[in-house]
Write a structure and sequence with these properties.
Low-confidence stretches: 1-32
Strand content: 25-35%
Distance between the termini: 35 Å
Length: 308
């Protein structure tokens, strides 16, 4: 990471405010009339060529310790089926930069037809009013650094800007939807996350996790490195474990046969932590698997390849 003094960052932002002050509080719908429009991401487009020169200028200035150039933005409407990675490569920016500023929450987001803004400097843009898990995670990582970040407001959204920074590992894993590994790779998903008819009452109820069927005593793996914060038995989930992970996440494993870890144990994603069982309120051997953030459940299939 390139360390850029706060004074230099503020200087760059003051230049920006002087140059595009009229654009700072207008609705996003009029963005194309306020920012140079790039129609094609190639050197035949003059505005694209200017963006590349601006980015190169930034790297030269930051590498030599000189005052950073002003932060500028270019408008581009995605008119093809390219994903965030191909767009970032063609734009000469990191996907972290484009995703964080344009509030693209996942590498799987559909981008065709979407109008985005391409900044002239790489870095992480964090909205001061986060709305998505990714934005909350990113702000939690950088809470102590917020006083050093530049403040900018574009199209009515206030951002903290961290020049030349990239996603941390957890942010990157969340964005790529690979935050966890499948804890039961040989199992079959028999019940998904969300509203379902209870196999016991016959009434609709919300299922807070995913059920994965497998033969009894099938090994269960930790879905990510972490610390065992709870283990025990209750009437609903039988033998269970909960593991805490970075980014305020935890995973929960229920209906276990045997448990091989103890409270406060450090685990990693290659470790067998338990066996599939049918303890508690269960219709047969399976693993009940939950993903939680700040105690609230999330859909495991959106964060774990192989559980779609």
């Amino acid at each position: 990471m390139i360390n850029i003094p706060r004074k230099i960052r503020k200087t760059a932002i003051l230049l920006l405010l002087a140059g595009i002050a009229a654009a700072l509080t207008v609705p996003a719908a009029s963005a194309e009339s306020l920012f140079p429009v790039i129609k094609r991401l190639d050197y035949a487009d003059l505005n694209y060529r200017q963006l590349q020169e601006d980015i190169e200028f930034f790297y030269k200035a930051s590498g030599s310790g000189k005052t950073l150039p002003p932060l500028l933005f270019y408008s581009y409407t995605i008119d093809d089926d390219n994903n965030i990675f191909s767009i970032a490569a063609r734009a000469g920016l990191t996907y972290d930069t484009i995703a964080s500023f344009n509030r693209i929450g996942s590498s799987k987001d559909k981008l065709y037809g979407r109008s985005i803004l391409l900044p002239s400097q790489p870095g992480i843009f964090l909205p001061s009013q986060p709305e998505t898990d990714l934005e909350y995670i990113a702000l939690s990582w950088r809470a102590a650094s917020l006083p050093e970040a530049a403040d900018i407001t574009i199209n009515g959204v206030n951002y903290f800007f961290f020049p030349a920074e990239s996603f941390h590992d957890v942010e990157r894993a969340y964005f790529l939807k690979i935050l966890f590994i499948n804890p039961l790779p040989k199992g079959i998903v028999t019940s998904g996350y969300g509203l379902r008819k209870s196999p016991f009452t016959g009434h609709n109820s919300f299922h807070n996790g995913i059920d994965i069927a497998a033969p009894e005593k099938t090994p269960v793996f930790a879905a990510r490195e972490g610390v065992v914060i709870s283990k025990g038995f209750n009437e609903t989930f039988g033998n269970y474990i909960e593991i805490a992970h970075a980014g305020d996440y935890s995973t929960f494993y229920g209906h276990l046969n045997k448990i091989f870890v103890e409270l406060h144990d450090q685990v990693n994603s290659t470790m067998i932590i338990a066996e599939v069982g049918t303890t508690g309120l269960s219709t047969g051997p399976h693993l009940h698997f939950e993903v939680r953030r700040d105690g609230k459940t999330r859909n495991p299939s959106e964060l774990t390849p192989g559980l779609e």
